[in-house]
Amino acid sequence: MKNRKKQFLKIGIAVLVIAVAGIVAGVVRYRMDNRFDLTVGGHTISKDEYVNCMKSVEYDTKMQIQQDYDAVYEDGFWGKKYDGKYGYEILTENTVEQLKYVHAVYDLAEECGDVSDSSYEALEKRWKDENAKRSEKVEKGEVVYGLKEYTFQLYLQYEMSTLKEKYCNDDTREGMELTEDEILEYYNSREWIFGDSEENADLETARIAVERELREKKYDDIITQRETDSQVDGNMADVNRFTLKNIE
């Protein structure tokens, strides 16, 4: 009887050890799958920010892979290799590039005083505050121009477009003061056709459009340079795993 009790005890201990080992392995695996370490341009990127940004480039990345590699969108699409890179790795690269772009825009805006805080958390708060204002107007029966509610991606596009316009409309800012030679060179770079006219407009007729496009181009060049200079740090293997896990 004592021997049988000892055998049962040994079996119980063995089962307990196996169960604990399984739990520990599961916890370790969970932590490995959810590790995330990414810094872009000095900004620590949260999982929430990364996923929101990833969603904004997911469709374009899917189309890019389909066109570049004649791929079919089907089960396992993101887990397949395309010229040595997995689909989810391409998505990671595009997400990081978009993060560099977004932070370049907002860092410049903060330097110019157009936003008081260039962080993702501040952006998210502005988005939620804007939706709250619109919701309150709807409840009061007041007129709401545009959307009644923004998705995060749409609000981001709206705000970045507004920041660009504000920058380009201020000729005291870097790159926005144009010389007549610059204007003439840009005018001569292509034809300027307006409305149903088939003739190229002269410079004075096209001047407003020429100056606007030239300023927008120079703004884009400033942002591109900031993107180029933006430092990316982190464990990209972990970021790739996180991307794969969070693709819809």
Report on this model:
The structure is a single chain. The protein is mainly α and 248 residues long. 67% of the residues lie in helices and 5% in strands. The chain contains 8 helices and 5 strands; from the N terminus they run αββαββαααααβα. The chain has helices spanning 2-34, 47-69, 87-111, 120-140, 152-168, 180-187, 203-229, 236-246; strands at 38-40, 43-44, 81-82, 85-86, 232-234. The strands form 2 sheets. Strands 2-1-5 form a 3-stranded antiparallel beta sheet, covered by helices on one side. The longest helix is centred in the first third of the chain and has 33 residues, at 2-34. The protein is extended, with a radius of gyration of 27 Å.
Rg, rounded, reads 27 Å
The N- and C-terminal alpha carbons lie at a distance of: 58 Å
Percent strand: under 5%
Number of strands: 5
Mean pLDDT: 89
- Low-pLDDT windows of residues: 24-30
Based on Cα principal axes, name the global outline.
extended
Order of helices and strands: HEEHEEHHHHHEH
Strand numbers in spatial order across the main sheet? 2-1-5
Total number of helices? 8
Main sheet makeup: 3 strands, antiparallel
Helix percent reads: 55-70%
Structural class: mainly alpha
Q: Summary?
A:
This protein is mainly alpha-helical and 248 residues long. Helices cover 67% and strands 5% of the residues.
